[in-house]
Amino acid sequence: MAEEQNKIALFIDADNIPAKYGKAIIESLQERGEIFIRRIYGNWEKNSLHGWNECILKYGLLAVQQMDFAVGKNATDMSLTIDAIEVLYQRQATIFAIVSGDSDFTPLAVKLRERGVYVIGLGKDQASVSFRSACNEFVDLSSLEFEQVDIKKPEVELIRKTPAPVSKILNITKSTKKMTLEERFAKCGQNGLRKPKKKLQLIHDVLRQSASLHADDKGFAPLNCAGHDLKQKKLGFGIKDFGYSLLNEFMSDFPEIYELVRTKSGGKSFRYRVKL
To answer: Do 169 and 263 touch, CB atoms closer than 8 A?
Structure first.
């Protein structure tokens, strides 16, 4: 019997989030279940929102028109909130995804959590602290967009031992053309980063904690969540200090620790789990 999917209700505040994040929003949520409600709110007569047109058509978003009744009053927020509460009482959605960063949505997130549903906030890094805290989970879209890139390196290969309709396991092997860890440590010293071994271990510790916090029943966690957690820790250093531009590249150098999963064939979104 097929495992029952989460039912996701997606609400996007177009006034608050640029259209360039549309693809990342949809792909990250598709990992978690079926997005059966896809609504985006705004005054579509505004030229500034026309960039969303392509995403609306491509991803089947329902564009809800909301006129600006008065200057300085955000009618879009009120319309989105009313619709979300209506969906809540229909008892169909198990996950509510609110794409914004506006503190005005804090009461909505609190109410949804009180009713026992899981609330995911998605927004930019300047999203209000109150809104972040009110959600069960907050996804930094700038970090999400950074992580969702194609793997084109020769050392990453797909394993097709068994059919996997949702994910493909990636076999991580080291490339002889890449820098050795000792060379990376030496480069860190040249760039003024002291005690690189200790700092590397701190990065691994955060990735382990993130995997434990966000893991599914098979132990896999979204890679974008790991990137977000690293950023939130504010360690003062990161994988770039060791010469890595992407988190999946970093994990590829530690196949004894991490296992990577690509969520869809040909997709750009990844999950990982810790072996040790």
So the answer is: no
